Amino acid sequence: MPTSHRIRIVDAFTDRPFTGNPAGVLLLDAFPDDAWLQNVAKEVNHAETAFAHRLPAGGDADWALRWFTPATEVDLCGHATLATAHVLQATGAAEGPVRFATRSGVLTTTAHPDGTVAMDFPTAPLTPAELPDGAAEALGAEPLAAYDTGANLGDLLVELADEKTVRALTPDHKALAHHSKRGIIATAPAEDPAGGYDFVSRCFFPRVGIDEDPVTGSAHTALAPFWSQRLGRAQLTGLQASPRSGLVRTELRGDRTLLTGRAVTVIEGDLYG
User: Fold this and answer.
1) In the prediction, which pLDDT does 26 show?
2) Coiled-coil intervals in this record (predicted)?
3) 4-121+260-272 domain in CATH 3.10.310.10?
């Protein structure tokens, strides 16, 4: 009989099923070979699938964590980390702060009694950048400015004129794949500052197999310093205005950014293979 593994699909950065960003989560005894991990992520076919296993006590981290899109392994993923922390809390596998060993160093999550999970991530360094030839045409809008987000993300952050422009984007994903290492983060200030969020964004990652990511935690490590400097506040709320949509609370702490959100498990079952 084939080996079975417990798998969960968790919607992250939301408290309602069928919104936010879905992620597969598997808690394992150890990591199988990379080909198996990639095949599972391809089968799950969500933006990311997270794989985690417990580490020996006394080390720098409590769990090892890896993230795969349907096409490749990635260096940093916020929503699948949030989903994993949610599963650890919901199953009783871990309580309080959890330290994850990842390709981006040790990341700490803290589950709170109110159901929120806070994640301590490295702040992305922003460097003004020239927009590559053809990028504006591929995106479908002329940015006001563009910024490189550093090696950890590998994204191009572009500021657009207003929220309406961000929401109306219909990019040429095939063309967009040629203009950054991972993808494009498009952002603008909230049209209504009293609407419950301070800025909007949409994220396009066709180069790693994701045309549009529903809610991207890692992108907010770049959005947080960008908008905190513009708005003069360390604590902000971002709305990722994808069709599924989701909210990310950010708190800039120098070279670290605290990302906070909720999650809900929508599917639980056995994976055979």
Assistant:
1) 98
2) none
3) yes
